[in-house]
Amino acid sequence: MSNQAQGRGGDSAPPDIKTIIDHESPFPPIRRIGMFRPLVWLKLGWQDFRASGGASLFYGVCFAAMGLVLNLILSHAPEYVSALTCGFLLIGPLLALGLYDISRRIENVRSGLLGSVFSMRGRWSNIGVLALVLAVIMMVWARASLVVFALFYNKGMPTMHGFLSQLFSLSNLEFVMVYACIGFVFASIVFAISWVSIPLMLDRDTDAITAMIISCVSLFVNVPATLVWASMIVAFVVLGFMSWNLGFIIAMPIVGHATWHAYKDVVGRHSDRS
Q1: 71: helix, coil or strand?
Q2: Which DSSP letter does residue 269 get?
Q3: Are 249 and 64 in contact (CB under 8 A)?
Q4: Which has the least CB within 10 A, 142, 178, 183, 212?
Q5: Is the pLDDT of residue 75 over 80?
Q6: CB 214 within 8 Å of CB 27
Q7: pTM of this prediction?
Q8: Can you tell me whether residue 21 is helix, strand or coil?
Q9: Given its phi and psi angles, is residue 53 left (phi above 0), alpha (psi -120 to 50 degrees) or beta?
Q10: Is 181 exposed, middle or buried (0-12, 13-18, 19+ CB in 10 A)?
Q11: Which of 92, 260, 124, 267 is nearest to 191 (CA)?
Q12: Cα–Cα distance between 268 and 19 in angstroms, integer?
């Protein structure tokens, strides 16, 4: 019931990738990958980053600039900075659409920043549905974030300096734990429905509902690998924040390109059934 998947460039895949075929399913085959396969995705993402020239760097600068603008405009209101920054990361898979397209173009020996910017052309209806779902999740998260702040800071919101001091000193451990747990729930939902769905819609013009189902199934088939991959993404995000958002200039393009290769490894094609 399984056969070897095809690797990049048409060669046989490494032994840590196997295609799971259900001949009665209308969905494409899902590949079971090795636990540490995400390390290969990062390597391929770095290669795409280097091959893309300034195109990937443009998206990295945009990610960093959005974070810096939020910090500057809302420096007096840490509750809004925290809610919007995390919300911005929740819709990050959608914002990285251009990076997926750059990797797709590199595979097809094409390049160009302009083409990646308009990669949604012809796919507005499908990707728009997922964008709406992510926007709703972001708004619910923002509301939940503000409620948590209000519960723990009912005598007045902290200043940014005071908030960071409390956060790193863990003097308000209950707040940190509750905030992290709620954030984990929202992040898990977004990760499950989007980790391969957006590249899938870009590559095959799949409808949003089908793509989200395939994404969730792919996650449950590859729980160990997705845990490693999600942990890597969190590590990149933390490093980006610790560098005052400047780390996002390189980190986010690499993660975006690596996500494309995650999709290519995990989601097979109907031709695999033959």
Answers
A1: helix
A2: -
A3: yes
A4: 178
A5: no
A6: yes
A7: 0.82
A8: coil
A9: left
A10: exposed
A11: 92
A12: 7
